[in-house]
Design goal:
Belongs to the short-chain dehydrogenases/reductases (SDR) family. By secondary structure, the chain is of the alpha/beta class. It is built from seven helices and six strands; from the N terminus they run αββαβαβαβαααβ.
């Protein structure tokens, strides 16, 4: 899985490892402390570095479950997004998942089994200040549906988990307990709490399991109900 060194990715890696999965993590920087599996460093904004890392993993491991989690989310309205920023986001949030899919799909097809879980975002439904990020996550939702059609005949499912506000390190730094911003976010969520990384990890684990064999091409919003009335049917 990509983006595995911290935040949601680190929690997903730990959650899956505890349930018997052999985890191979990829991220630009090494995780702090121990990691629950093998780990490879790669700058996913660099297409050649990404290719080399994925090629090495594909040679060493049989990858049956792919979690495309790595992503960057700088703030910016449409007037503020530069071509360079948009290109950087597209590289990490869209191009890298394509490379991962291309690297591991042949093995999945050969084994007639695979689980692909893309990490999207409720921001794809519209969120002020996330103009470029929303574009990339909307693209991942669209790719999820198309990949599901293209790969389904070989026993491969492709789904997307789209989180709402999750209490990662970055979220906590920007919205500490008791702050006005955090209180406003919590008030807007029907279940009246911020999500935990484990909430996302459990959804990923379901899509990775044999139990999810008849679910494909789906986007699951793990958002405490924040998207009710906004998510398409």
């Amino acid at each position: 899985m990509t983006g595995a060194s911290r935040g949601i990715g680190r929690s997903v890696a730990k959650y899956l490892a505890e349930r018997g999965y052999q985890v191979i993590g990829v991220a630009r920087t090494e995780p702090a402390g121990s990691f629950p599996g093998a780990f490879r460093t790669a700058d996913l904004s660099d297409a050649e570095a990404t290719r080399a890392a994925l090629e090495g993993i594909a040679k060493e491991f049989e990858v049956d479950v792919l979690v495309n989690n790595a992503g960057i989310a700088p703030l910016g309205t449409v007037e503020e997004v530069t071509p360079e920023t948009l290109q950087h986001l597209m590289s990490v949030n869209v191009r890298a998942p394509y490379q991962c899919m291309q690297a591991f799909l042949p093995g999945m097809r050969g084994r007639k089994f695979g689980r692909v879980i893309n990490i999207g975002s409720r921001a794809a439904l519209g969120k002020h200040g996330r103009s470029a990020y929303a574009v990339t996550k909307g693209g991942i939702a669209a790719a999820t549906r198309t990949w599901a059609i293209e790969a389904g005949g070989d026993g491969i499912t492709v789904n997307c988990v789209a989180p709402g506000p999750i209490a990662t390190e970055m979220f906590e730094e920007g919205n500490p307990a008791g702050s006005a911003s955090r209180n406003a976010i919590e008030a807007a969520i029907p279940v009246k709490r911020i999500g935990q990384p484990e909430d996302v990890a459990s959804a990923v684990a379901f899509f990775a399991s044999d139990d999810a064999g008849f679910c494909t091409g789906q986007v699951l919003y793990v958002c405490g109900g924040l998207t009710v009335g906004s998510a398409p049917l």
